[in-house]
Amino acid sequence: MLFTIPSFAQDTTFTVNIKEGLEYKFTVTKDNEGLIENITFHEFTNEDGIFLATILRFSEEDFAHYIDFDDYNFDGYLDMYVHDPCMILGNCHGKVYLYEDGSFKHHPGFDVMTSVSADPLTKGITSLNRSAAGSLFNNETYKWINGDLVLIKRISQDLTSGDEMKYIYRIEELDNNGNLVTTSEEILDEPRLD
């Protein structure tokens, strides 16, 4: 269940049901350029009212414009993905904050990913990165293994070196020893656009 908050022109406040019966109120503060500077959140419960208030701060280098909510660790609670405008071929860069122990905590394992999405059916996390009008790409799938995000599959397409331009289409998968190994590789005259 993906819940997206659009890029705001000005400061705004909204609520999100993190889980049934657990509602959070968020206030987003933006600078003059429309970049997110702060996200303040308060937990609301039926019995207690406001339970906590936390502020997440962002710098210009974070280039944060959007907030998506999805369950990125499959624990039944919505987590928060704060990212840029996904300008080049839909490549989004940002930070994921997992809902843990009553707060949203930055998880650095997502920082190397692009355009992060969660698949509740496979319990996989996908990172997609495209360039050269989509003809070069790197699609990665991660799984949670013993509390760590582990890269289990990579499908990539890149250019060969040399005078004749060809494409290398490669599939790598995690083997039984915990290593990412090439399971398929093709040299192509035309790019695949998976």
Shape: globular
Helix content: under 10%
Question: Strand pairing plus helix content: what structural class?
Answer: mainly beta
Give the strand line-up of the largest sheet: 10-11-12-13-14-15
Number of domains: 2
The main sheet comes to: 6 strands, antiparallel
The amount of beta strand, in percent, is: over 45%
> What is the radius of gyration?
19 Å
Poorly predicted segments: none
Element-level helix/strand string: EEEEEEEEEEEEEEE
Strands, count: 15
How many angstroms separate the termini? 24 Å
Helix count, DSSP H or I runs of 4 or more residues: 0
* Integer average pLDDT: 86
Notable traits:
mainly beta, globular, 194 residues, 2 domains, six-stranded antiparallel sheet, 0% helix, 15 strands, single chain, five-stranded antiparallel sheet
Tell me what you see in this structure.
The strands form 3 sheets. Strands 10-11-12-13-14-15 form a 6-stranded antiparallel sheet, with no helix packed on it. Strands 1-6-7-8-9 form a 5-stranded antiparallel sheet, with no helix packed on it. It is globular, with a radius of gyration of 19 Å. Helix content is 0%, strand content 57%. The protein has no helices and 15 strands. The protein has strands at residues 3-5, 12-19, 22-30, 36-45, 49-57, 66-70, 79-83, 94-100, 103-106, 117-119, 124-131, 136-145, 148-159, 167-174, 180-188. The chain has 194 residues and is mostly beta strands. It has 2 domains: 1-116, no CATH class; 122-194.
